[in-house]
């Protein structure tokens, strides 16, 4: 028993102090994973803010957009043209979803909208497999100009390795968050989005088109999915297994709150860094593989003590 | 109205077809259900395997008019590597006169093993599934030719031992944390004790297949001398990329035979140069049987392969080899029973008496494709050998001769495991072998 307490409370910290270079590496890996979780969560937040829909299809949108990009490039398009064309495809997809799915379900119960996004997941999964096959594919990161090398940092008599693609992921994610924040706060459409998020009826009464807003927000979410697909695909290829990782964004959302962009970022980083530290330093006590459940246990603890998340709005309903 | 009419017509045709089809299949054809997964997170491995399997039977039909004049009907049923769907596929197809099932999934195999003796349809899990099924006395209806997971692991350990010795070394074992990846752990632990090496285990959950940085950080921390991988699907390329990222020496990283295909390493490319993997089926199209498949099936546009380049790839050839063994078992069963159209019981007999010698492999157009396989009442594994292949940055190259398993060590363990499996099943059907 004493040994167990020691391995839970003392040994991990001793190890961190003994090999600080390795600790930096673990935190960096967690930071990069967290950034990518945050990007997936961001896609959820955008749609939830504007329409109150929990978009179950966000994970498959990551895979689908990445497959479209690779597929168009394989079909002969130069990488950057394929990227622009993929953005176009995500735009058409957003308009299609608004026109054929959401418009018909206005004023329906949240559960019905959730089911619609589950249906959308199946459609996108089927379409992805039909057009691009089920094989694991390489992201065209070199063609898009991402370097595949690494930067070595010799520190504390050890080595920390920073992959160029991970540095790029972090920079792009930060830029994307800044761009989205500016879009929401400084542009007319952004203000309209916030108005719709606050009160649908009031927004409609001042002439804001709900249909247009929904199409825009699904498009923005599609762009976020594409960026996530490119970055995650560059790290570990593109396959339909990527969709499963998106489920971890659920834990991120519970931590950060469903309506906060800042919450998605902080939640993503908490999950990413937390799970890596826990897996590496405490995982062996549990036989390894703790990363598979760490995020959900953390989310469960948050649900017990702060159900609205770190940045979420506290919902008070009169009965 | 038009749609209603069309629907009614299709329903009528389907109904008449459902009455007629089993009769046709039972009387005139050999029915081989194919449990495939062309969709889902493991489709990258399932698709080429299913293509190779279907194309070999199609070639036999086209070139020879079937096996001894009886055409083979291959019907695919999509499982998406899901055990529940696999069982549904089994239940949906077994009544059509199914001769054998090759589920390509340890989970589905585990679910079908108890059903095989009841429905009298053998399960052929080629090199996967329950290792203890190699013991024919205890598992009369299951076959694992050409080897089992346990014996394969022993061959891999022999390879490591012959490359600098294994005693005193630390072996890392990274595995998909499902039944498949857990299957060889008992033998790994026991051989570690016997051969004097240390084991460090790194489980990878299905949800974490493409998110393995934690596992590889742990590998960096543990500093194993060699890494062995029991991976599948999207887990494999991610693992090799992560290994490259932490600069683990690739020529000290060995995948099992489900972690060494073109689907696994093509996405990795040059970063995976030097990575090793076990294999038991030939690579490439330079074999007579493969040339016939191209001539009679692929070139005629009757294959499902997305590209002709896929033909000859590791998993395509593995699926083809699965069909070769089943076709040979049909042929043996026909000869033993004197019947042209056989049933599941005859097929079991054929599988049990299979004898793929080097000469027979040459006759089949598969000289040097694999090692000989000889089954018997007690040996449902064939104690086959494997070879090691290496990724050169763009393709696989065979780098060793066949490596025999440590059968003297593993067989008693398999027998013990088989005894344990049947011990709490009083009605389990066994057989006595002289």
Number of helices of chain A: 14
Gyration radius over CA of chain A: 21 Å
> In which order are the strands of the major sheet of chain A placed?
1-2
Cα distance spanning the termini of chain A: 50 Å
Number-wise, the strands of chain A total 2
Overall body shape of chain A: globular
**Biggest interface between chains:** A-B, 42 and 45 residues
Low-confidence sequence ranges of chain B: 1-26
Oligomer: heterodimer
Write down the domain tally of chain B: 2
Q: Main attributes?
A:
heterodimer; A: 319 residues; mainly alpha; two-stranded antiparallel ribbon; 2 strands; 72% helix; B: 434 residues; alpha/beta; Rossmann fold; 2 domains; seven-stranded mixed β-sheet; two-stranded parallel ribbon; 13% strand; globular; disordered N terminus
What would your notes on this structure say?
The complex is a heterodimer of chains A (319) and B (434). With 319 residues, chain A is mainly alpha-helical. Chain A has one domain (21-133, 155-305). Chain A is built from 14 helices and 2 strands. Chain A has helices spanning 2-9, 11-18, 20-51, 58-74, 79-102, 110-132, 164-186, 188-198, 200-205, 210-236, 242-245, 248-256, 261-282, 291-305, and strands at 150-155, 158-163. The longest helix of chain A is centred in the first third of the chain and has 32 residues, at 20-51. Chain A is globular. In chain A, 49% of the residues are buried. The model of chain A has no long low-confidence stretch (mean pLDDT 87). Chain B has 434 residues and is of the alpha/beta class. Chain B is built from 16 helices and 13 strands. Chain B has helices at 2-28, 43-64, 83-93, 106-112, 116-119, 149-161, 179-182, 185-195, 213-222, 235-245, 262-265, 288-298, 314-337, 344-352, 358-363, 407-423, and strands at 29-36, 71-78, 123-124, 142-143, 170-176, 198-204, 226-230, 253-255, 276-279, 355-356, 373-374, 387-391, 396-398. In chain B, the strands form 4 sheets. Chain B has a 7-stranded mixed β-sheet, with helices on both faces. A two-stranded parallel sheet of chain B has the order 1-2. Chain B starts with a helix and ends in an 11-residue tail after the last helix. Classes of the chains: A mainly alpha (319), B alpha/beta (434). The A-B interface holds A 22, 25-26, 29, 32-33, 125, 129, 133-138, 148, 150, 161, 163, 232, 235-237, 239-245, 247-248, 275-276, 279-280, 283-284, 287-289, 291-292 and B 38-41, 43-44, 46-47, 177, 201-215, 217-218, 220-221, 233-235, 237-238, 241-242, 245-247, 263-264, 266-267, 269, 271, 306.
């Amino acid at each position: 028993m004493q040994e167990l307490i020691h391995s839970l409370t003392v040994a991990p910290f001793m190890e961190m102090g003994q090999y600080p270079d390795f600790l930096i590496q673990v935190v960096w890996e967690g930071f990069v994973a967290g950034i990518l979780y945050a990007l997936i969560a961001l896609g959820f937040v955008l749609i939830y803010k504007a329409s109150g829909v929990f978009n179950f299809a966000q994970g498959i949108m990551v895979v689908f957009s990445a497959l479209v990009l690779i597929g168009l490039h394989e079909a002969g398009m130069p990488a950057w043209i394929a990227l622009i064309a993929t953005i176009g495809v995500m735009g058409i997809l957003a308009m299609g979803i608004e026109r054929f799915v959401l418009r018909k379900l206005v004023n329906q119960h949240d559960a019905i909208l959730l089911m619609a996004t589950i249906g959308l997941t199946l459609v996108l999964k089927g379409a992805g497999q039909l057009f691009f096959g089920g094989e694991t594919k390489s992201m065209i990161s070199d063609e898009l100009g991402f370097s595949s090398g690494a930067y070595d940092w010799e520190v504390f008599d050890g080595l920390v390795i920073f992959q160029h693609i991970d540095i790029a992921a972090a920079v792009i994610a930060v830029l994307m968050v800044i761009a989205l924040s500016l879009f929401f706060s400084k542009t007319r459409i952004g203000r309209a989005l916030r108005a719709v998020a606050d009160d649908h009826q009031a927004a409609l009464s001042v002439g804001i088109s709900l249909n247009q807003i929904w199409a825009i927000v699904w498009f923005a979410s599609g762009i976020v999915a594409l960026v996530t697909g490119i970055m995650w695909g560059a790290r570990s290829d593109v396959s339909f297994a990527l969709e499963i990782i998106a489920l971890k964004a659920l834990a991120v959302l519970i931590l950060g709150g469903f309506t906060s962009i800042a919450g998605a970022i902080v939640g993503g980083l908490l999950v990413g860094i937390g799970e890596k530290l826990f897996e590496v330093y405490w995982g062996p006590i549990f036989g390894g593989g703790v990363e598979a459940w760490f995020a959900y246990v953390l989310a469960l603890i948050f649900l017990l003590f702060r159900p609205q998340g770190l940045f979420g709005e506290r919902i008070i309903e009169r009965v | 109205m038009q749609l209603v009419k069309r629907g009614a017509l299709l329903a009528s045709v389907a109904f008449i077809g459902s009455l007629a089809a089993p009769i046709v299949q039972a009387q005139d054809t050999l029915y081989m259900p194919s449990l495939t997964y062309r969709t889902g997170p493991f489709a990258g491995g399932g698709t080429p395997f299913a293509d190779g399997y279907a194309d070999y039977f199609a070639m036999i039909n086209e070139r020879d008019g079937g096996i001894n004049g009886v055409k083979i009907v291959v019907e695919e049923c999509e499982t998406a590597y899901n055990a529940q769907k696999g069982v549904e596929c089994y239940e949906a197809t077994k009544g059509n006169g199914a001769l054998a099932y090759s589920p390509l999934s340890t989970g589905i195999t585990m679910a079908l093993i108890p059903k095989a003796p009841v429905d009298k349809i053998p399960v052929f899990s080629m090199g996967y599934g329950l290792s203890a099924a190699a013991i024919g006395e205890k598992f009369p209806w299951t076959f694992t030719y050409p080897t089992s997971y346990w014996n394969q692991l022993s061959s891999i350990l022999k390879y490591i031992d012959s490359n600098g010795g294994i005693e005193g070394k630390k072996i890392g074992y990274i595995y998909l944390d499902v039944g498949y990846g857990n299957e060889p752990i008992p033998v790994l632990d026991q051989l570690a004790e016997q051969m004097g090496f240390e084991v460090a285990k790194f489980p990878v959950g299905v949800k974490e297949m493409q998110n393995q940085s934690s596992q590889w950080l742990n590998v960096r921390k543990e500093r194993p001398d060699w890494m062995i991988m029991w991976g599948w699907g999207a887990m494999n390329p991610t693992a090799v990329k992560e290994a490259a990222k932490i600069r683990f020496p690739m020529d000290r990283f060995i995948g099992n035979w489900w972690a060494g295909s073109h689907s696994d390493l093509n996405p990795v490319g040059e970063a995976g140069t030097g990575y090793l993997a076990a294999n038991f089926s030939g690579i490439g199209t330079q074999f007579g049987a493969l040339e016939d498949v191209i001539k009679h099936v692929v070139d005629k546009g009757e294959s499902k392969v997305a590209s002709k380049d896929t033909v000859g790839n590791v998993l395509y050839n593995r699926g083809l080899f699965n069909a070769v063994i089943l076709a040979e078992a049909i042929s043996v069963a026909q000869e033993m029973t004197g019947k042209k159209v056989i049933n599941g019981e005859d097929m079991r007999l054929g599988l049990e008496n299979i004898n793929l010698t080097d000469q027979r492999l040459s006759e089949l157009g598969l000289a040097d494709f694999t090692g000989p396989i000889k089954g018997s009442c007690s040996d449902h594994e064939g104690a086959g050998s494997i070879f090691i292949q290496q990724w050169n940055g763009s393709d696989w190259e065979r780098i060793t001769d066949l490596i025999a398993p440590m059968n003297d060590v593993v067989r008693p363990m398999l027998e013990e495991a088989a005894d344990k499996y049947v011990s709490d099943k009083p009605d389990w059907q066994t057989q006595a072998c002289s």
